[in-house]
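Fig. S4 source data, part A: sequence.
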Amino acid sequence: MNALLRLLLMAALLAVWEAGVRLLHVPIYLLPPPSAVFTGLYRGIASGLYVEHVWITIVETLLGFLLGAAAGLLLGTAVASSARFEYFLYPVIVMFQAMPKVALAPLIIVWFGLDLTSKVINAGLVCFFPLMINTIVGLRSADEDRVALMRSLAATPAQIFWMLRLPGALPSIFAGLEIAMIFALIGAIVAEFVGAQSGLGMLIQSMNFSMDVAGQFSVLFILSLIGLGLNTIVAVVRRRVVFWDPGATTNRLGRKSS
Protein backbone atom coordinates (compact mmCIF):
# COMPACT_ATOMS: atom_id res chain seq x y z
CA MET A 1 0.00 0.00 0.00
CA ASN A 2 2.77 2.41 0.91
CA ALA A 3 4.58 1.63 -2.34
CA LEU A 4 1.41 2.40 -4.31
CA LEU A 5 1.01 5.72 -2.50
CA ARG A 6 4.60 6.62 -3.34
CA LEU A 7 4.01 5.90 -7.02
CA LEU A 8 0.80 7.93 -7.01
CA LEU A 9 2.56 10.85 -5.36
CA MET A 10 5.37 10.76 -7.93
CA ALA A 11 2.84 10.57 -10.77
CA ALA A 12 0.94 13.54 -9.35
CA LEU A 13 4.12 15.61 -9.08
CA LEU A 14 5.08 14.79 -12.65
CA ALA A 15 1.58 15.70 -13.86
CA VAL A 16 1.73 19.06 -12.06
CA TRP A 17 5.19 19.68 -13.53
CA GLU A 18 4.00 18.84 -17.06
CA ALA A 19 0.85 20.95 -16.78
CA GLY A 20 2.67 23.89 -15.22
CA VAL A 21 5.35 24.02 -17.91
CA ARG A 22 2.81 23.82 -20.72
CA LEU A 23 0.28 26.25 -19.25
CA LEU A 24 2.92 28.84 -18.39
CA HIS A 25 4.70 28.33 -21.73
CA VAL A 26 8.07 27.86 -20.07
CA PRO A 27 10.83 27.59 -22.71
CA ILE A 28 12.23 24.08 -22.98
CA TYR A 29 15.78 25.40 -22.57
CA LEU A 30 14.82 26.64 -19.09
CA LEU A 31 12.67 23.81 -17.80
CA PRO A 32 11.67 20.93 -20.07
CA PRO A 33 8.44 19.01 -19.38
CA PRO A 34 8.70 15.45 -18.05
CA SER A 35 7.59 14.12 -21.45
CA ALA A 36 10.66 15.68 -23.09
CA VAL A 37 12.91 14.36 -20.30
CA PHE A 38 11.65 10.80 -20.70
CA THR A 39 11.95 11.08 -24.47
CA GLY A 40 15.60 12.04 -24.05
CA LEU A 41 16.03 9.20 -21.56
CA TYR A 42 14.56 6.68 -24.01
CA ARG A 43 16.76 7.87 -26.86
CA GLY A 44 19.89 7.73 -24.73
CA ILE A 45 19.13 4.19 -23.54
CA ALA A 46 17.98 2.91 -26.94
CA SER A 47 21.12 4.23 -28.65
CA GLY A 48 23.36 2.67 -25.99
CA LEU A 49 24.88 6.07 -25.17
CA TYR A 50 23.87 6.05 -21.51
CA VAL A 51 24.77 2.43 -20.80
CA GLU A 52 28.53 2.86 -21.21
CA HIS A 53 28.67 6.10 -19.23
CA VAL A 54 26.47 4.71 -16.43
CA TRP A 55 28.76 1.72 -16.00
CA ILE A 56 31.87 3.92 -15.83
CA THR A 57 30.35 6.22 -13.21
CA ILE A 58 29.19 3.27 -11.09
CA VAL A 59 32.67 1.70 -11.18
CA GLU A 60 34.27 5.02 -10.18
CA THR A 61 31.77 5.41 -7.36
CA LEU A 62 32.20 1.90 -5.97
CA LEU A 63 36.00 1.97 -6.11
CA GLY A 64 36.05 5.43 -4.54
CA PHE A 65 33.66 4.23 -1.86
CA LEU A 66 35.91 1.28 -1.05
CA LEU A 67 38.96 3.55 -0.87
CA GLY A 68 37.20 6.15 1.27
CA ALA A 69 35.59 3.54 3.52
CA ALA A 70 38.92 1.86 4.17
CA ALA A 71 40.57 5.20 4.99
CA GLY A 72 37.65 6.32 7.16
CA LEU A 73 37.55 3.09 9.15
CA LEU A 74 41.32 2.96 9.69
CA LEU A 75 41.73 6.62 10.63
CA GLY A 76 38.55 6.62 12.74
CA THR A 77 39.72 3.57 14.66
CA ALA A 78 43.17 5.10 15.18
CA VAL A 79 41.76 8.40 16.45
CA ALA A 80 39.27 6.68 18.76
CA SER A 81 41.91 4.32 20.14
CA SER A 82 44.84 6.70 20.66
CA ALA A 83 44.72 10.09 22.37
CA ARG A 84 48.19 10.88 20.99
CA PHE A 85 47.08 10.07 17.46
CA GLU A 86 44.04 12.29 17.89
CA TYR A 87 46.12 15.17 19.27
CA PHE A 88 48.66 15.24 16.44
CA LEU A 89 46.79 14.02 13.35
CA TYR A 90 43.10 14.80 13.81
CA PRO A 91 43.52 18.60 13.31
CA VAL A 92 45.41 17.91 10.08
CA ILE A 93 42.60 15.66 8.84
CA VAL A 94 39.97 18.29 9.67
CA MET A 95 41.97 21.02 7.92
CA PHE A 96 42.34 18.83 4.84
CA GLN A 97 38.63 18.01 4.86
CA ALA A 98 37.79 21.73 5.07
CA MET A 99 39.39 22.26 1.65
CA PRO A 100 36.66 22.34 -1.04
CA LYS A 101 36.95 19.18 -3.10
CA VAL A 102 35.82 21.16 -6.16
CA ALA A 103 39.04 23.16 -5.75
CA LEU A 104 41.15 20.03 -5.24
CA ALA A 105 39.64 18.17 -8.21
CA PRO A 106 41.66 20.07 -10.88
CA LEU A 107 44.89 19.28 -9.00
CA ILE A 108 43.93 15.62 -8.74
CA ILE A 109 43.24 15.57 -12.49
CA VAL A 110 46.69 17.11 -13.15
CA TRP A 111 48.44 14.63 -10.84
CA PHE A 112 46.62 11.44 -11.87
CA GLY A 113 45.30 12.20 -15.34
CA LEU A 114 41.88 11.95 -16.95
CA ASP A 115 41.44 8.22 -16.48
CA LEU A 116 39.76 6.18 -13.75
CA THR A 117 42.37 6.79 -11.03
CA SER A 118 41.65 10.50 -10.55
CA LYS A 119 37.89 9.91 -10.27
CA VAL A 120 38.36 7.14 -7.71
CA ILE A 121 40.70 9.26 -5.58
CA ASN A 122 38.36 12.26 -5.65
CA ALA A 123 35.35 10.07 -4.74
CA GLY A 124 37.34 8.52 -1.88
CA LEU A 125 38.41 11.92 -0.54
CA VAL A 126 34.82 13.18 -0.53
CA CYS A 127 33.32 10.16 1.21
CA PHE A 128 35.90 9.16 3.84
CA PHE A 129 35.34 11.96 6.40
CA PRO A 130 31.68 11.23 7.35
CA LEU A 131 32.56 7.58 7.90
CA MET A 132 35.60 8.49 9.96
CA ILE A 133 33.51 10.71 12.26
CA ASN A 134 30.83 8.05 12.66
CA THR A 135 33.49 5.45 13.42
CA ILE A 136 35.01 7.65 16.13
CA VAL A 137 31.62 8.37 17.70
CA GLY A 138 30.60 4.71 17.56
CA LEU A 139 33.81 3.34 19.08
CA ARG A 140 33.72 5.90 21.89
CA SER A 141 30.09 5.17 22.73
CA ALA A 142 30.94 1.88 24.47
CA ASP A 143 29.65 1.62 28.04
CA GLU A 144 32.66 2.30 30.28
CA ASP A 145 31.21 0.06 33.00
CA ARG A 146 31.31 -2.85 30.57
CA VAL A 147 34.85 -1.89 29.53
CA ALA A 148 35.89 -1.86 33.20
CA LEU A 149 34.21 -5.23 33.72
CA MET A 150 36.09 -6.82 30.81
CA ARG A 151 39.36 -5.36 32.09
CA SER A 152 38.68 -6.83 35.51
CA LEU A 153 38.32 -10.20 33.77
CA ALA A 154 41.81 -9.75 32.27
CA ALA A 155 40.54 -9.01 28.76
CA THR A 156 43.19 -7.61 26.42
CA PRO A 157 42.65 -4.31 24.54
CA ALA A 158 42.16 -6.32 21.34
CA GLN A 159 39.47 -8.46 22.97
CA ILE A 160 37.71 -5.35 24.30
CA PHE A 161 37.79 -3.84 20.81
CA TRP A 162 36.49 -6.89 18.92
CA MET A 163 33.98 -8.08 21.51
CA LEU A 164 32.62 -4.78 22.86
CA ARG A 165 33.64 -1.58 21.10
CA LEU A 166 33.29 -2.71 17.47
CA PRO A 167 29.88 -4.45 17.82
CA GLY A 168 28.53 -1.39 19.64
CA ALA A 169 29.93 0.91 16.95
CA LEU A 170 28.47 -0.99 13.98
CA PRO A 171 25.16 0.97 13.85
CA SER A 172 27.09 4.26 13.66
CA ILE A 173 29.54 2.83 11.15
CA PHE A 174 26.79 1.63 8.83
CA ALA A 175 25.04 4.99 9.10
CA GLY A 176 28.32 6.53 7.97
CA LEU A 177 28.59 4.02 5.13
CA GLU A 178 25.16 5.03 3.82
CA ILE A 179 26.25 8.68 3.74
CA ALA A 180 29.66 7.80 2.30
CA MET A 181 28.11 5.91 -0.62
CA ILE A 182 26.15 8.99 -1.74
CA PHE A 183 29.18 11.24 -1.22
CA ALA A 184 31.29 8.89 -3.33
CA LEU A 185 28.85 9.31 -6.22
CA ILE A 186 28.99 13.09 -5.81
CA GLY A 187 32.79 13.02 -5.72
CA ALA A 188 32.97 10.97 -8.91
CA ILE A 189 30.61 13.33 -10.73
CA VAL A 190 32.57 16.41 -9.55
CA ALA A 191 35.77 14.89 -10.92
CA GLU A 192 34.04 14.12 -14.22
CA PHE A 193 32.88 17.72 -14.44
CA VAL A 194 36.44 18.96 -14.09
CA GLY A 195 37.97 16.62 -16.63
CA ALA A 196 36.97 13.24 -18.02
CA GLN A 197 36.75 11.29 -21.24
CA SER A 198 33.62 9.38 -20.20
CA GLY A 199 31.04 9.13 -17.43
CA LEU A 200 27.71 10.78 -16.68
CA GLY A 201 29.37 13.98 -15.43
CA MET A 202 31.17 14.39 -18.74
CA LEU A 203 27.90 13.65 -20.52
CA ILE A 204 26.13 16.43 -18.60
CA GLN A 205 28.91 18.85 -19.52
CA SER A 206 28.62 17.88 -23.19
CA MET A 207 24.85 18.36 -23.14
CA ASN A 208 25.29 21.71 -21.42
CA PHE A 209 27.42 22.95 -24.30
CA SER A 210 24.79 21.84 -26.81
CA MET A 211 21.92 23.28 -24.67
CA ASP A 212 20.27 19.86 -24.43
CA VAL A 213 18.47 20.62 -21.16
CA ALA A 214 16.06 17.70 -21.48
CA GLY A 215 19.04 15.37 -21.88
CA GLN A 216 20.68 16.86 -18.79
CA PHE A 217 17.52 16.23 -16.78
CA SER A 218 17.41 12.64 -18.02
CA VAL A 219 21.00 12.09 -16.86
CA LEU A 220 20.19 13.67 -13.50
CA PHE A 221 17.26 11.26 -13.23
CA ILE A 222 19.63 8.35 -13.87
CA LEU A 223 22.02 9.67 -11.22
CA SER A 224 19.20 9.87 -8.69
CA LEU A 225 18.28 6.24 -9.42
CA ILE A 226 21.92 5.16 -9.06
CA GLY A 227 22.19 6.98 -5.74
CA LEU A 228 18.97 5.40 -4.49
CA GLY A 229 20.05 1.95 -5.59
CA LEU A 230 23.51 2.14 -4.00
CA ASN A 231 22.08 3.53 -0.77
CA THR A 232 19.50 0.73 -0.70
CA ILE A 233 22.24 -1.89 -1.08
CA VAL A 234 24.09 -0.52 1.96
CA ALA A 235 20.83 -0.33 3.92
CA VAL A 236 20.02 -3.97 3.11
CA VAL A 237 23.49 -5.09 4.23
CA ARG A 238 23.04 -3.02 7.39
CA ARG A 239 19.78 -4.79 8.22
CA ARG A 240 21.47 -8.16 7.78
CA VAL A 241 24.61 -7.36 9.77
CA VAL A 242 23.28 -5.08 12.52
CA PHE A 243 20.08 -7.05 13.00
CA TRP A 244 19.90 -6.24 16.73
CA ASP A 245 19.74 -2.48 16.16
CA PRO A 246 16.14 -1.13 16.04
CA GLY A 247 17.23 1.68 13.72
CA ALA A 248 18.50 -0.87 11.18
CA THR A 249 15.31 -2.93 11.05
CA THR A 250 12.70 -0.16 11.26
CA ASN A 251 11.91 2.15 8.40
CA ARG A 252 11.10 5.81 8.69
CA LEU A 253 7.39 5.13 9.11
CA GLY A 254 8.12 3.12 12.25
CA ARG A 255 7.25 -0.25 10.72
CA LYS A 256 9.43 -3.31 10.65
CA SER A 257 11.27 -3.87 7.39
CA SER A 258 10.63 -7.14 5.62
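Fig. S4 source data, part B ends here. DSSP finds eleven helices and no strands in the chain.
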